[in-house]
Amino acid sequence: MDYKVNVVGRKIPTEIVGKKIFPFMGIGRAQLPDRKVAPKIRRRLPGETKLLATIEEAITKSGLKNGMTISFHHHFRGGDKLMNMVIKKIAEMGIKDITLAPSSIHPIHAPLINYIEQGVIINIQCGVTGPVGDAISQGKLKGLLTVRSHGGRARSVEDGDCHIDIAFIGAPTADEFGNLNGVDGKQACGPLGYMVPDAQYADMVIAVTNNLVPFPCNNISINQNHVDYVVQIKDPIGDPTGIVSGTTRITRDPVRLRIARNCVSVIEASGLLKDGFSFQSGAGGISLAVTQFLGERMLELEIQGSFGMGGSTSALVQLLEKGLFRRLLDVQAFDKEAIRSLKENPNHIEIGASQYANIHSSGAAVDVLDTVVLGATEIDVNFNVNVVTESDGRILHGIGGHQDTSEGAKLAIIAIPLLRGRNPVVVDNVTTLTTPGMNIDVVVTDYGIALNPESKYYRRIKRAEDLRFKTIEQLRDTAYTLVGGPPDPIPFDDRIVAIIEHRDGTVLDVIRKISD
Amino acid sequence: MDYKVNVVGRKIPTEIVGKKIFPFMGIGRAQLPDRKVAPKIRRRLPGETKLLATIEEAITKSGLKNGMTISFHHHFRGGDKLMNMVIKKIAEMGIKDITLAPSSIHPIHAPLINYIEQGVIINIQCGVTGPVGDAISQGKLKGLLTVRSHGGRARSVEDGDCHIDIAFIGAPTADEFGNLNGVDGKQACGPLGYMVPDAQYADMVIAVTNNLVPFPCNNISINQNHVDYVVQIKDPIGDPTGIVSGTTRITRDPVRLRIARNCVSVIEASGLLKDGFSFQSGAGGISLAVTQFLGERMLELEIQGSFGMGGSTSALVQLLEKGLFRRLLDVQAFDKEAIRSLKENPNHIEIGASQYANIHSSGAAVDVLDTVVLGATEIDVNFNVNVVTESDGRILHGIGGHQDTSEGAKLAIIAIPLLRGRNPVVVDNVTTLTTPGMNIDVVVTDYGIALNPESKYYRRIKRAEDLRFKTIEQLRDTAYTLVGGPPDPIPFDDRIVAIIEHRDGTVLDVIRKISD
Prior knowledge:
Chain A is of the alpha/beta class. The first copy, chain A, contains 14 helices and 31 strands.
C-alpha cells in the first residue's frame, strides 16, 4: 500500500478498497472539480400518480439493485424508524451489497449490525453514533466507513463522490404530489435540511409519510419537482421524543457552567460581540449553557446579533424571541421548542445542508459565522480535534457540523472539561484527527484556557485580565498528571475500517480496526 | 435543407443555423434525455466578499466573452431596467455575438434592436412581446429566435439545450451574501420564480440590487448557494408600475363579459367545479373576468378550491382571501395586490419555473391543474393555437404558460372574441402553431362555443342545455363571412427567423421572415 503524509501529519494511503484517496492539503487548496452531478431527468405526464401503498412497492418501482447507494435523513435522531424499516424490507427482498449513505446513524439503528454482518450493507458513508460505529471498529463492515461533516456530506452528494441512487425521505407531512415538510403532523421533526442535496441530486426520490395532506401542502421544504413517489404508510416514520437525546439538556454541573461562562468571556474579549454578531453552538450541555449566558450578556450590552445558527435548541429560540438575534438559520431541530419556533416564527428560517455548510457552492452560512462553540473527545497540542473516536479507539460519534463551522467561523472555541472520566481530553496526539488544528482558536477547560498562537484573535483575547490562560502543553501536562501519565497506546490492527474526510473531500485521517 | 413533417402537420427542417431540430412527436413521446446540466462547482472561502460596486466590474469578474449566453428575468415586465442597462454596458465593452436568453422580452426592451443590428446580440431564446419581435420578423437578428413556454424555458435551462453562462438577476432585495427576494424594497416585483432554474444551472450568477439589507435577508427566493456576486447600484433595477400592462385590467366590454360567463358555465358543465377544484387564468381582460365570475359561482355553490395558480392578479388574490381557494401557487405577479399578498399571506406560495411547468422534472404544478382559461391570436379548425404571431405574420407575443397549462390541465379553454379588429381568430390553419390542438378542449367565442371532439369532457359539456354550441368549422365560417372571406396569404420569405418549441424541446413550427 502506498502512503502520503497530509498537511496535518497523518499517513494516508493513496487507495483504499479500490477508492482513490486524496490527502488533506490545507484550507482551499484541494483541486476544485469542474462540475457537480448532472441530475437525472424524469418526465411525469398529466394524470400520472405518485402515490404508493407500501415500502416494498416503492423499492420495486425504484429499481433498487445490488450494489446501489441509498440515503435517509436523521432529523428524528434517536427516534428514527424509517431506516430500519426500509433496510429490513431490502434484506427480505434479497438485495445486498448496499452502500448506506444517510445523514447520520444513531443508537436506534443498532439492528443494522445484523444486516452489516449479512452483507446487505457493505459500505457506510456518514457519521455514526453508537453501536453501529462500535461494530465497524470491530471490523464487521465488509467495505469502508466514510465519515463526513454535514457540509462534507452535502458536497459529496452534489459533487457525486457519493452518488445517491435512491433517497428515502421520511416526511412528517406530504401531499400526494410530493411536496414535503417536517413541521406539520403528529410526528414533526423540524427542518428537512439534510435531505435537500439528496432531493436535488439523487437519481430517484421516495418520500414516506403517515400524514398525507391535500395538494398543495404548505411549508414546502422539499418540492414536488424532486419527489418521484410518495408512500403513505400507517405506522409512524419516527418518534419526535427521540430527537431530544442525552446531549440536549443544559448542564447543572458547576464545573461545566464555569467553562460556559469563560467561553462568553473569550467571545467578548475577541471583540466580536457587537451589533451584527452571529453565533452557533451545539446541543451539548456546555453549549446550551453558553447560549444562555451569551444571551444574558447580549442583553446587558444591549447588542442585537444578526443570526444564530442551528441545530436549533430552545436556548437559541429564546434568544430569537427576546430579539437578541434577528434571525435563526436552521438545518436541524434538537428539541420540540425549536420545531414549534420554526413552524411559527418567520424569522426562524429553514436552510438546506448546502446553504448551511457546503464549501463547493457559491457560499455557505458557516462561512459568514462569527463564533462557534464546540465539543471534542480529544484535542492535541497542535489543536487538532477528535470528535469521532473515543480514547479507546472505538468509533462512537459523528462529525456533525464541527469541521464546517470551525473552518467557517472567525472564532472557533472548543469547550471541554480536561478529563472525560479517567481519560485526558488534551493529549499529545489525537487518536483520530477529525478537525484540523488550524481551524481552532481557543480551548476552554476547567483548568484554564489555551489560545492557539496561530489564531487571528490571539493577541486581542490574551489581553483579557479576568481569564486564566495556559499553554496547550500545560493543559496536557495537567491532564496527564491528574490521570497518572499519558494514555496507553490503543491496540489497532492494520486494516483500515474508516476514513475521515475534510469538508472539501480530501482525507484527514484513517481509522483502523481495534485488535480483538 | 431536409425537412420532416411533425405530428401537427408542420414541415420542420432537420437543422437550422447549425442547430439540430427535432420535430414534435406528440405528448410524452419525445426521447427523454438522460441527465440535466451538471452545475458548475464554485468554492467560496470564509472572508471572501461577493459585493461589487458596478455592473462593469461584475461583467469583468464574470469572464463574459464573445459568443456566450446570458439571462435575465422579466418579473418587472414593462418596467424592467436591468436588461437594457447590462446590454448597453456589454456593447460598450466591445463584447459581441451574445445569445440573449431572458425569461421574456417586452416593449421596454426596444433599445435592444440597436444591439441586434450591431451584432452584439446574435441569437435570442425566449418569448418576445413588441418591437424586438417585429424586428426579428423583418430579419434583423443574425441568428435565430427560439421561442419557448415558461416551462419549456425552465426545461431548456436545466437540460442544457440553453446553457446559461451568466445569469443577471435583478433583485428588489438582496443581502451581501446573495440571498434574494422580490417582495421587499421600493421596487418589489413579487416572485423571482423564472430565475430559479438559472440560479441553479447557470455557470455564474450575478445579482444586481438597489436595496441591500443585512445578512440574512428574510423571504429567501434564491439563496446564497447560487449567487456568485452581488452588485449594489443606486439606480432602480425596475419600475413596479410597469408590471401592470394593458393586458392586466378586467374587461368592461359586454361581449367579452359574456364570453367570460360562458367559460364559467363550461367549467361547471365539465363537472370539475367541486371541492378541491384548481384553476389558472391569465391576466387578460377576459381571463380576469372569468376569475371574478368563477369566484362568485364558487361562493354560490359553497365550493372550496384547492389552489389557484398565477401569474397572480388581484382577482385571484381576492379568491384566496375569501377562502375560495386554500392556496395560491405563484411564479409571477401581474399587479401590486398580488405582490402584497405574496409578501403577507403564507397561503400565497412562491414557486420556481420548474415547479410551475417543467415537464422534465418529477412533477410540475400545471400537471395537476383542473382548468385553465387562455387567450389566442388565432385558433384553427384542428384546435391548434397561435399566440405568438399576429395575423400579418409578425412576432408580437411570447408563449407564456400557454403550452404548459393547456397540456397539464384536465380542461383547457380558449376564450376569445371571434374577430380581432378585422381579422378572423378562428381560421383554417393558424399562421404559427404554438399550442397543439390535442391540448385544447373548448373554444368559447362571442358567436358560440366549439368543443374539441377529442376532449375527454366533450360528452359531459355537450349536455349543458344553456350553452350555444357550434362546430369549430361553423365558427370559422362565421368569422370568414363577417370579414368577407378567408384572410389573404401572408407574404413570407424562405428564411427561417424563429422556431417554436414544444415544452418538451421538440419543434412545433417555424416562423419565416416577412417579405419586404
